[in-house]
Write a structure and sequence with these properties.
222 residues, two-stranded antiparallel sheet, mainly alpha, elongated
Length: 222
C-alpha cells in the first residue's frame, strides 16, 4: 500500500515538473525568443508593415484603403474622391457590423463564378465608371485600356496595390484634379512602381497608399 502511494506521488510530481518546464519553455521562453528574432530581423513586418506620414501611422502596406468623398444624403455608397489614386474595387464582401470604424474588416473573395449575373453587373458598372472618371480633356480612356484589377476585387478584397496599367490610366485625371502636370504625376507613378519580387514572383505593382502620400507631398510643394 505504501509503495503504491509512493509511486503515485512520484509520478504526480514528475508530471507536475514536466508541466512546469513545458509551460516555461513553450509559454515564456519560446514566445520571447520568436518575438526577439522577429523584432531584430523583421522589425517592419513584425509590427504590421506600418506606413507613416507626418510622424503618424496612417495605415499598413498590406491593407488597402478607400479614398472616397463623404456620404451625401440618400447615398448608400460614397463617390470616389478623384483627386487621389483609387485602388481596386472592394464590393461583394457584404457589410461590416462587427467594427464600423474599419469598413474593410471583412476579408474574402466574392465566390461568384465568371457567368454570375451579379459579378457581370459589377464588372460592367466598374468598367464604365473607370472610363468615365479617368477620361479628361485631351485624354480618353478606351475600354481596351482598362486592366482587370480596375474592375475586380482581389481574393481578400483588401489588396493594397494596383497594376502599373491601372495607375497609368489615372495619371491624367489626378494631374488635372491637383493642378499638376501629367509628367509630374507619371514620374510619381514610375518612382512608386515595384517590380516582381525576386525578379520572378508576382507582378509589377504600385502601393496606392504610398502613392497617395507622395502625391500629397508633391501637391504641397507645388
Amino acid at each position: 500500500m505504501n509503495n503504491s502511494v509512493s509511486n503515485t506521488a512520484r509520478l504526480l510530481w514528475a508530471g507536475l515538473r514536466a508541466l512546469l518546464v513545458l509551460t516555461v519553455v513553450t509559454g515564456v521562453i519560446y514566445p520571447l525568443a520568436v518575438t526577439g528574432v522577429a523584432q531584430a530581423l523583421f522589425n517592419d513586418q513584425a509590427n504590421g508593415s506600418e506606413i507613416k506620414a507626418d510622424g503618424h501611422v496612417v495605415g499598413s502596406s498590406l491593407i488597402g484603403q478607400s479614398y472616397s468623398l463623404p456620404l451625401k444624403k440618400g447615398q448608400e455608397t460614397p463617390e470616389p474622391d478623384l483627386k487621389w489614386f483609387q485602388g481596386r474595387p472592394q464590393n461583394g464582401l457584404g457589410t461590416n457590423s462587427v467594427n464600423t470604424q474599419y469598413k474593410l474588416i471583412l476579408s474574402g473573395a466574392t465566390n461568384r463564378s465568371g457567368d454570375n449575373k451579379d459579378l457581370i453587373d459589377w464588372v460592367t458598372a466598374a468598367k464604365a465608371a473607370v472610363i468615365k472618371d479617368n477620361s479628361v480633356d485631351g485624354y480618353t480612356v478606351r475600354p481596351s485600356d482598362v486592366p482587370a484589377d480596375a474592375v475586380t476585387s482581389s481574393g481578400s478584397g483588401l489588396d493594397p496595390d494596383i497594376s502599373p496599367d491601372y495607375a497609368d490610366i489615372q495619371v491624367h485625371r489626378v494631374a488635372e484634379k491637383n493642378g499638376l502636370s501629367v509628367a509630374q504625376v507619371q514620374k510619381l507613378v514610375d518612382e512608386h512602381t515595384d517590380g516582381r519580387t525576386l525578379g520572378f514572383i508576382g507582378e509589377p505593382r504600385a502601393n496606392v497608399l504610398e502613392l497617395n502620400i507622395a502625391l500629397k507631398e508633391l501637391v504641397a510643394k507645388s
